Amino acid sequence: MMSVINSSKGDFEDAALFIIYASLFDAVDGLAARLTNSASRFGVELDSLSDVISFGLAPSILLYNIYLRELGDLGVVLSSLIMVFAAIRLARFNVQLSGFEKSKFNGLPAPMSAFTVCTYILFYYDKIFSEGLSNTILIILSVFLPLMMVSRVKYESIPKPSLRSIKKNPIVYIIILLAVILIIATKGEGSFSFCLFYIFSGIIRSGYNMIFRKHRKSGEDLDESFEFNNTK
Predict the structure, then answer these.
(1) What are residue 61's DSSP bridge partners?
(2) Domain extents for the chain?
(3) Ranges of the chain whose pLDDT falls below 70
């Protein structure tokens, strides 16, 4: 709500910050549910409804007010994509949810989509790039991020910290540590770069797995053909 109010007043950086604050609370509620052993279906549904507002509606209004409103009806359509596709992504997630453990996500998580928009606005928009290029990137993000949310690209969730999880997924924790160091060293500017790294790492890994599966399947087909010919 505070993000929407600040977007409407033209305080775009404050609006982006309130969305980031919402992402911190989004992480805390899951931790609280695990610590109190109070995870429930109601909590899952409420969490998704909150995510649609915080990471769908708020970023869409921010994008609309900061520039896309100048495009008229097209701007309304473009700015609404993050909100609509976040709702679709979260509905799909709830339908596919088995229990309450989330080791992998199908599609880009809605908080990461919103975080990408916010970090770009805070550290890059109309600062490093020219106004024309800045607005072009906003249009690209308004289309690219929604498509990634409803894609079949798989993304790793951040595992619960423990000695066992660190031993099982050391690379994940190394990446998290490097990301924290990068963000602190660049006074936050590196956070947008980390978002892009996270997004494209999923794309690259999914592409690699798809190619690997095709090669493996073709190899199995050749083995079966060889065995069939030998049998004849």
Answers:
(1) none
(2) 2-157
(3) 97-103, 158-173, 214-232
